[in-house]
Design brief:
The complex is a heterodimer of chains A (368) and B (303). Chain A is 65% helix and 7% strand. Chain A has 368 residues and is α/β, with parallel strands linked by helices. The relative contact order of chain A is 0.11. The longest helix of chain A has 32 residues. Chain B has 2 domains: 218 residues, Rossmann fold (3-Layer(aba) Sandwich); 81 residues, Alpha-Beta Plaits (2-Layer Sandwich). Chain B contains 10 helices and 14 strands. Classes of the chains: A alpha/beta (368), B alpha/beta (303).
Chain lengths: 368, 303
């Protein structure tokens, strides 16, 4: 036990003496949260809508006005021709075209079903579905104002009444922030651990350590514990920034969040240790860690929902620690999930932790 | 009593045979030198003794404990100073020393007697980072750290490589003092002149031991008459001299040439005359007693 304390003391002195360490710990979360959360937004703030109104009636004007009043839309001047309106989409001047046919008002007054046509530029599928969603909901809500039957949109004949749970304003930042926190914790846990151990190899100091009676487990604990603590601190620090800047409230239990993070970190740290045993210098370990991080992050559902990924990707994600943490982090923070809700993820994560720790300890040989 | 015993150890790295059946013993309280050029296998041998490498065959024991099976015990008895400076450069002198004392379960105060002669010179710099020390200071710190847990056996791998002449002298004086305190020391070096400072030496070349003896014993065992020749353009004359029938071997030795005679009848006069006849302008020929380097070259050729 005393030996571990000496190792920890040495490790903390070294970490805080390292000039690049403090900026990494304090600046990295601030910069990542501020820049990434704001840049990686998938909200449609400025939809350029071209409207072709063949009806030119009071009701059609009322519908168009509804878009005028919405802060999301900019109505762009449109010629009275469907084809010319589509050209606007081709040129990139319009994101969508709304076509109101002749007889819109007449049919509405008669109480018959009316149709409008919505053409959306779908190069970016996510944006297209968002535009579709926003536009449909505006048309639907206006149809009710007319007191008439349903206004039927060309591509969406079903009447929907949507409410967005857990993130009612569809604030994309709230969705991104928990995800970015996951990345942050991973960088500290996996990257810095792997780099730190390889540095000892590179400088030859591990040689001197190896001739001491320090036991394998003592060395590993001495190496992993500091980064485990720092990474958990990082999570707390990131949550405070998220609270101050994005007004993010954690709906679920904070102890539960940290418990899960602690288990997740066991996996990340062990993984870092495994990578460090397979590399002999810092450059190698950087590339290796970077490679795995990118794969894990892209598959984890940071940007795209994992549900829409192919089957093989979902199989892969059963061993992707980031996937679980990403999911659980959002569940606890945004949805307020309790232990019972995250129980399956908790079990999977614990199994991953045991397996990776077992491999890491076995791979690390004291006789280098 | 034997503190270190090495029995027919072999070790290969791929196709390269670094050690080919090496055996020797080091007695308690001895200052034992492992002398050989770079690439002879010294470091590999040191790393096996210090439990950092496993031999392919053969075994080694430190204080009666096997380095492979009882490495845990061996590690508590050893002090090791690798050839490359391997302390934490970002920790201060004091922090390094306290750390290594700590992991060996002791304190600097407890064994201060042992290191005080070395450490008092470092004391003024105790707050300085190890990486910012001069070469000689680094070496003293490394020695202090290797000694701080009062080891029975001290293993030093080329401690004086890259260190200036004055620091080298100082370092060997320190080793003598440590020997007086009863610590068994094994030290490797490529400097032949350091051999005479050891109690016993092993000459090692190409992974083989060429001989183990006291420095005087090794010198006395030199079987030939040796002459030192000073002549014009020694490098040029070397080829010429080697082809002479009375010459066993000849090589450059500092500014002069060393001439190994192949029979007992040769005298400086005979050699001078023979050389003049072959067209070498000789300044002087003297019979000299061999040095370790001469013995090393002779044994190397005998192999």
């Amino acid at each position: 036990m005393r030996t571990i304390l000496f190792l920890l003391q040495k490790e903390f002195i070294q970490i805080f003496r390292n000039k690049s360490m403090l900026p990494i710990i304090f600046l990295l979360p601030i910069i990542q949260l501020l820049i990434l959360a704001n840049a990686a937004t998938q909200e449609m703030k400025n939809i350029n809508l071209a409207v072709v109104d063949f009806d030119n009636s009071t009701y059609s004007q009322r519908l168009i006005n509804a878009f005028y009043h919405s802060s999301f839309y900019t109505i762009i001047p449109t010629p009275q021709s469907e084809n010319k309106a589509i050209d606007l989409v081709h040129n990139g001047d319009a994101d969508a075209v709304l076509v109101i046919n002749h007889g819109f008002e007449k049919n509405l007054v008669k109480g018959e079903k009316v149709s409008v046509q919505l053409l959306v530029n779908s190069i970016n599928g996510t944006a297209a579905s968002l535009i579709n969603g926003y536009t449909s909901s505006i048309i639907q809500s206006n149809a009710q104002l007319f007191g008439a039957g349903n206004v039927e949109i060309g591509m969406l004949p079903v009447h929907t009444d949507s409410r967005f749970w857990y993130n009612p304003d569809l604030n994309y930042k709230l969705y991104m922030v928990p995800g970015i926190l996951v990345i942050l914790v991973t960088i500290i846990g996996m990257f810095l651990t792997a780099l730190n151990i390889v540095r000892e190899k590179e400088l030859g100091t591990i040689e001197q350590i190896n001739v001491t009676p320090i036991k394998k487990y003592q060395f590993i604990v001495g190496k992993l514990l500091p980064f485990w603590i720092i990474a958990l601190f990082e999570l707390a620090f990131g949550l405070i920034i998220a609270r101050l800047v994005f007004n993010l409230t954690i709906l679920g239990s904070i102890p539960l969040l940290f418990t899960f993070a602690a288990v997740y970190l066991l996996v990340a740290l062990s993984f870092g240790l495994i990578l460090s045993t397979s590399s002999s210098n810092q450059q190698q370990v950087m590339f290796l860690t970077f490679f795995f991080m990118i794969v894990f992050i892209m598959m984890s559902g940071l940007f795209t929902p994992t549900e829409s990924m192919p089957k093989w990707a979902n199989y892969f994600n059963t061993i992707n620690p980031l996937y679980y943490f990403m999911r659980v982090n959002r569940m606890i923070i945004l949805k307020g999930s309790g232990f019972r809700d995250i129980f399956p993820e908790f079990i999977s994560m614990s199994v991953l932790a045991i397996v990776t720790m077992f491999f890491a300890v076995n791979r690390y040989k004291k006789t280098v | 009593m034997e503190k270190i015993s090495v029995n027919s150890i072999s070790k290969s790295y791929g196709n390269v045979e670094a050690l080919k059946g090496v055996s020797f013993n080091v007695d308690g309280g001895e200052l034992f030198g492992l002398i050989g050029p770079d690439g002879a296998g010294k470091t590999t041998l040191m790393r096996i003794i210090t439990t950092l490498l496993l031999p392919d065959s053969g075994n080694a024991k430190v204080c009666g404990y096997d380095v492979a099976n009882e490495y845990k015990k061996v590690r508590t008895l050893l002090g090791y100073m690798p050839g490359r400076f391997s302390l934490y450069q970002d920790l201060s002198v004091e922090e390094n020393l306290n750390f290594f004392a700590g992991v060996f379960g002791t304190t600097v105060q407890e064994n201060y007697d042992l290191i005080k002669n070395i450490y008092y010179k470092l004391e003024p710099f105790k707050k300085r980072r190890a990486g910012k020390l001069s070469g000689g200071m680094k070496q003293k710190l490394a020695l202090s750290c290797a000694l701080v847990h009062k080891p029975e056996v001290l293993v030093l791998d080329e401690p004086t490589t890259g260190v200036d002449a004055v620091s080298r002298k100082e370092f060997w004086d320190l080793l003598k003092e440590l020997k007086m305190q009863g610590i068994t020391i094994i030290v490797s070096t490529a400097y032949m002149d350091e051999a005479s400072l050891c109690d016993r030496i092993a000459l090692i070349q190409n992974g083989k031991i060429l001989g183990v003896n006291t420095p005087t014993g090794i010198i006395n065992a030199f079987p030939y008459k040796l002459f030192s020749i000073e002549c014009e353009k020694p490098t040029h004359a070397l080829e010429n001299i080697r082809s002479l029938s009375i010459c066993k071997n000849a090589y450059l030795f500092g500014n002069s040439l060393h001439f190994v005679s192949n029979n007992e009848e040769n005298s400086p006069e005979i050699i001078a005359k023979t050389l003049e006849e072959s067209g070498v302008k000789v300044d002087s020929v003297n019979e000299v007693s061999p040095e370790i380097e001469d013995c090393f070259i002779e044994r190397m050729q005998r192999q």
